[in-house]
Amino acid sequence: MSSSHTVTVSMDVEAGQKNKDKGISQDLILAYKTLGVVFGGLVTSPLYVYPSMNLTNPTEEDYLGIYSIMFWTLTLIGVVKYICIALNADDHGEGGTFAMYSLLCQHANIGILPSKKIYTEEENLISTQPVVAARPGRLRRFIESSIIARRLLLLTAILGMCMLIGDGILTPAISVLSAIDGLRGPFPSVSKPAVEGLSAAILVGLFLLQKYGTSKVSFMFSPIMAAWTFTTPVIGVYSIWRYYPGIFKAMSPHYTVRFFMTNQTRGWQLLGGTVLCITGT
Known about the structure:
It is a single chain. By secondary structure, the chain is mostly helical. It has one domain. Helices cover 68% and strands 0% of the residues. It has 12 helices and no strands. α4 (60-83) crosses α11 (254-263) and α8 packs across α9 (192-209). It is globular, with a radius of gyration of 25 Å. The chain starts with a helix and ends in an 11-residue tail after the last helix. It comes from Oryza meridionalis.
C-alpha cells in the first residue's frame, strides 16, 4: 500500500470522526433548544387538569381515576400518535397539518391549489429506478373524483392549522396568567387588575421576541424550562415517597374504568378537562 493511499485513508477516517462529533454536538444543541418549545407545554399543561375537574365530594378513587386518565392520555398521544404516526409524516423535514396535506397531494391527484414540486437529489435518484404502480384504493379514487371531497380535505388541513395557531396563542396566555396569579398567595396586596396588566405586558414582550425566530426564543427559555423540568420530578419523587407511595397503582386502566362507572354522565362531561394535559404536546 502506498504512503499517499495511507494518508488518504487516515484523512477520511479523521473527517468521518469530525462529522460524527459535529453531528452529536448539533443533536445536543437541538435537544437543548426543544426544552424551551416542545417540553414547555408538556410539563406545565397537566397542572391545569385537577382544578378544571370540578367534582362534588371527590373520593380517593376519583383522584386516582383522573390521574389514570392523564397517564394513559399522555402515553397514547405521545407513543401511538406522535412516535408511530406523526413522525412518519415527514415532508422534506417539515411536519404538521400542511406537511401531511402536501404528502397527500404528492401521492394522489387531490390538490386544488396550484403547487410547484421541489425535487431533491435523493428524489432524482429514486426517479431513475423502475417503479411498479400500485392500484389506487377506493378512498383515493373517491377523493380524486369528487371536488367536494377534495375541498373538504383542504378545509380540514386549514382547520387543523387554525387550531394549532389558537393553541399557540391560548396556551402561553393561560400559563402566564396562572403563574402571575400565583403571586397573590404570598402577596395578598397584589390586586387582580395588577395581575392582568402584568400578564398582558409579559405576553406582549414574548410575542415581540418571537419575530427573532423560534430558535433564539427557545434558546433563551431553555434554561428556565430545564430548571422546571428537572426540579419538578425531584419534588414529585419526594412528595410520593413522603405522602402517597400508592399513587403508582393509578397507572392501571382499572381506575379509569371505575371513574366513568362511578360518575357516569358527569364523568364523560368532565373528560373534556383532561384535554388540558395534552395542550402542550
